Amino acid sequence: MNVFMKYILVFVALCLAQSVSGQTFNQFKKAAEESFLKGDYYSASYYFEQANEQKPDRGEILYQWGEAARLFNAPQYALDIFSKIKKSDRKQFPKLNWSKAKCFFMLGDLDKAAETLTLKKGFNQSLKKEYEQLNNQIQWAKQQNRRDDIIAIDMPIGINSAWSDTAPFPTGAAFFFSALKYENQEKNIRLGRVYEYNHATKKQKKIDLKEIDETYHWSNWKLGLDKKTAYFTLCNPQNDNQCTIYRTEKVNEKWSRASEMPTPINAEQSSNSHPFEAIWKNEKVLFFSSNRAGGQGGFDIWYVHLYEDGTISEALNMSQINTVHNEVTPFFDGNEFYFSSERELGFGGYDIYKWDGINLVENVGLPLNSGFDDIHFFKDKENVYLSSNRIDSEKLDKKSGACCHDIFHFRTKSKPKDKEKTNNDIVSSNRDSLLVESEKKLTSIEMNEEVKKKTVSISKAQIKIQKEAKELVITGSKLEKYSKIKGKPKVYKKAVVYFDNDFPKKANTRKEIRDYGLLYRTYKNRKEVFGEKSSQSNRQRVELFFENDLELGKEALDAIIEEALVKLETGIKVELILTGFTSPRAKDDYNWALSERRINSVVNYLELISQGVLKKYLSSKLLTIKHNPRGETTASKTISDKITDKLGSIFSIEASLERRVEVEIAY
């Protein structure tokens, strides 16, 4: 099976598994075991769940159900299932601790993974090697430092969706990517297609190709060096998603009829995918991945020479980087070679690696990699793109957290070329983070004496200390221009930020709660879902809520943080008052705790985007943060609190407006 088309099974299962009814326990169990053997772990999980409903809490069903969940990359869901296995039944499953440790490892909880990974006495010693391998992986991961030169950036709204979004290829005003969202109504399944997003119009369109089989998946679109040639893959869902590489050219602004690449590239009885054209050792080549015979094992990276006369060399195996594990999605920018691999010492799933072109292969580290599958690396100057099904991606199945890949954007921090250029303090906005890029920090703003021209760029705002006017001007955000000479500044005093229903989830400690930036991005991508679930008369209000209340609330929060930083740098004491609210859907005590979690997510966001700058002000008491959880105490009595009434208690505008944190600044 093409390893990256395995998620298609999830889509098929979502469409078909739910239609099964009237089956007996034995029939569900049999269907689950058959699906498991085929590698269709999502369907297996569904059938095991149905079997468990008919005969609850049987150890063998719970264990297999948990294993199926783990194998379709739903580690938290798997842990929840494993926890239901009775103590008296656990001895039956010698690999249980290994499976649980693997889940914790995927979630990034390395301490819990190490603590869980114990091989009990009397257990099958043949498992010892697997336990040792996982332990080595955990210990390796513990020694790796999170890179501080990488900052995450929001992707434009409209690219990522609940369906799998992969293979980013930015070029000029266009952004090409693949998405598994094209609906084949006749087959009742979703199919992969290539889309082009226009940054100027903020719209996307599906690439139309002539005479291409509509029942196949089209994906992995990559432009050639001339930008007029495009390579892509066609994958046959009826043949274990076996993929073939195709080529097309742009003629009169339209893509011509595509043609299959010849045998050196498309080997028979194999899957060939992930084409990428580049200049390698002064010659034009096409890199790709293939599981053909003659490789190191599984999928390997291969390449062919593309000669000027149109001929192609034999395929050559990149034996310097290939292993017995899968190596896929090659990328070469003329200087550095990147690819993804499932090799043992990594953070989990597929990790991205860099090769120096000679011998050294190194893991690119966190946060580019995660405990999940990180693939399709693409680098353009300081911008980095990749696709991943990590926790932060939109989940198609909310219950289990199953599926899918999203496209993630990062930016690398450039190093100053010489000391002469590091005299200015620069704070740049990357994603929702503030990163101090210079060694020198702005400690005071003297408004009554001449100051050399400096620029501090914070988030979307730009603060200019101008020698001539002796005034502080803030531009580029919702903050208005103001001057010390003219009097009191006009700035935001309050921001209201909004949350999706029942988010953030429960956690053992505050630091385990996600920061508001992640919650905001996930919520923002749910606009279409809320529109579909709302009544026809409310859809326009939903649109306005997401475009105005949600987005402007986030902007106002950033503006308040900017102002707080400016005040703190001048030695002014600042207090932030955070008041949390919920809709009335759950019980009082639950909502009270939920409102506190929402406050904590904003606090986590404050700490994250300041890159630790705010921490010193908290320690010095120059900054204080007041928590004021209110739960549902102020929610309107007209809002539905019925669990069964999702339209009224979750998707209504009235309920959405109650799920908030109000942030006020005082100084």
Task: Please characterize this protein's 3D structure.
- By secondary structure, this protein is an alpha+beta fold.
- Helices cover about 25% and strands about 25% of the residues.
- It has 15 helices and 30 strands.
- The strands form 8 sheets. Strands 6, 7, 8, 9 and 10 form a 5-stranded antiparallel sheet that branches. A 4-stranded antiparallel sheet has the order 1-21-20-19, with no helix packed on it.
- A hairpin with a 4-residue loop joins strand 4 (about 190-200) and strand 5.
- Helix 2 runs antiparallel to helix 3, helix 3 runs antiparallel to helix 4 (about 60-70) and helix 5 (about 75-80) packs antiparallel against helix 6.
- The longest helix has about 30 residues, at about 540-570.
- The model is unreliable at about 1-20 and about 415-490 (pLDDT under 50).
Describe, in short, the structure shown:
By secondary structure, the protein is of the alpha+beta class.
